[in-house]
Amino acid sequence: MAFCDEDLNGYPEFGDSDEEEIDTCSPSLCLFCEAIFTTCELALSHISKIHGVPLLQLLQTRSCDFYSYIKIINYFRRHKPPAHDYQTVESLQGLTTLDQSYMIPECEDDGLLQFDVEGYQESHLQLGLASKDNSPVTLSANEYEALKSKALQLDQLKRELEDLKSQYTEDLTCLRSSAQRLISSGPLSSMTEYGDVSTPPTVGVNTSKVHSLNDAQDDGYIGSYSHYSIHMDMLQDKVRTDGYRQAIVRNSEMFKDKIVLDVGCGTSVLSMFAAKAGAKHVYAVDMSDIIYQAMDIVRENQLEDRITLIKGRIEEVKLPVDHVDIIISEWMGYFLLFESMLDSVIFARNKWLSVDGLVWPNRCKILMTASCDPGLRQKNIDFWEDVYGFKMTCMKYEVCKEGLVQTVNSSHIVCPPVEIQLVDCCTSNITQLDFTSDFTLLVNTDCTIHALIGYFDTFFDHEKASHQVTFSTGPLATPTHWKQTVFLLAQPLHKKQGL
């Protein structure tokens, strides 16, 4: 698996140092994953931070000398025990009495064996002992600058943590109002606000809402996908996950001996499906920190020789291959186009996909239908008539500008769905996603329409596939984590059957 050292900048135990102070040992391979580092310090700090094995803390206790350290490294190389067995200093101390056979290196030019144990212990233990009795400490100019640099890094990490905690709350609100930001600038909001039914409804999708996120919004979106609950929701969505599994595993002849790129891999479940289907190699890319857990997941399933995990933006990473045969991605958002992922898939397709390659899924449809549900109006619009004895009717029209993400009762659907846009993942470009669409809904009974309902269908039905798979996020299908997007009408529409 591939990993870049710059992803570990800012570790609190080893700050950025002057060029002449950088360790020049051989590249250091992590003991528990395939990450490779240019210095021993970065590797040991990664082992402590990501895998929870406190080798550095063990060295600071002086219960482990240079020879014991060598034996421990070779022990881990030889036996490859799971990291969770050695996540305390006490558990590591049990390895300090290993026999002399562990002095023989398990790996040629192992960078971790070149670590300056005595130098590290001297620099860290002196400060640690002095702090116990509060006696004065004399620092050299270099030691003072190093300590100052670490303090600044810790302060920066603290601020970043607070920003992430704040951003998490904002992310939840952002996801719920996704359709609002896509649709509110289009003609649909004008129609719903004033109840104008003289012309067929028109939906305008403003792709600038998708592609013009500023750095803070983009980082917030990426950060939200570091939270495990989001991935649990997606994995527990059987329609979504089993749909992808069937589309990949049941079409194993398409994947056999192919090079596959997984854009936004998350926990890497799609990558593992592709490997199970016979892919020669899978390159899985994700910007969020879930990539670290994905590394452990791939290793736990013994697929590290067939799946390479790369942390970074798809627009910035470098793949070790010039072309891929298949791109897989679960890029779809609420009402299909939210989440800023389709543009990344298109970028990857244009840069790496071979001439006869395939994007999987190969197409999606955006659809619209209507609902006759007075409960929706009562809950979201009539509510403002009397709020604890106060009138807030001006809010009614504001509510109609927003798209609500929720599961719609299928019994209230009163007309067949109509397609308002087709997205061909193999050929569509960014400019084609900025569109308007005229459509007509024909009700199948006399009714009063209270809301328009938007959703999407996903298709794995390329002519190369022997088993075609489709799943829907519509109100008549099994509910998914995407739910549906509800556009409330400011004035209900009274319609006759067939009109």
Brief overview:
With 499 residues, this protein is α/β, with parallel strands linked by helices.
Q: Overview of this structure, please?
A:
This protein has 18 helices and 15 strands. Helix 6 packs across helix 10 and helix 12 packs parallel to helix 14. The strands form 4 sheets. Strands 9, 10, 11, 13, 14 and 15 form a 6-stranded antiparallel beta sheet that branches. A 5-stranded parallel beta sheet has the order 6-5-4-7-8, sandwiched between helices. A two-stranded antiparallel ribbon has the order 1-2. The termini are far apart. 36% of the residues are buried. It has 499 residues and is of the alpha/beta class. The longest helix is centred in the first third of the chain and has 36 residues. Strand 4, helix 14 and strand 5 form a beta-alpha-beta unit.
Furnish the topology, listing elements before pairings.
Elements: E1 28-29, E2 36-37, H1 40-51, H2 55-60, H3 66-79, H4 89-93, H5 117-132, H6 141-176, H7 178-183, H8 187-194, E3 202-205, H9 208-211, H10 215-224, H11 228-236, H12 238-249, H13 252-255, E4 259-263, H14 269-276, E5 281-286, H15 290-300, E6 307-311, E7 324-328, H16 342-352, E8 353-360, E9 363-371, H17 374-380, H18 394-400, E10 403-406, E11 418-424, E12 435-438, E13 447-460, E14 469-472, E15 484-495
Parallel strand pairs: 4-5, 4-7, 5-6, 7-8
Antiparallel strand pairs: 1-2, 3-12, 9-11, 9-13, 10-15, 13-14, 13-15
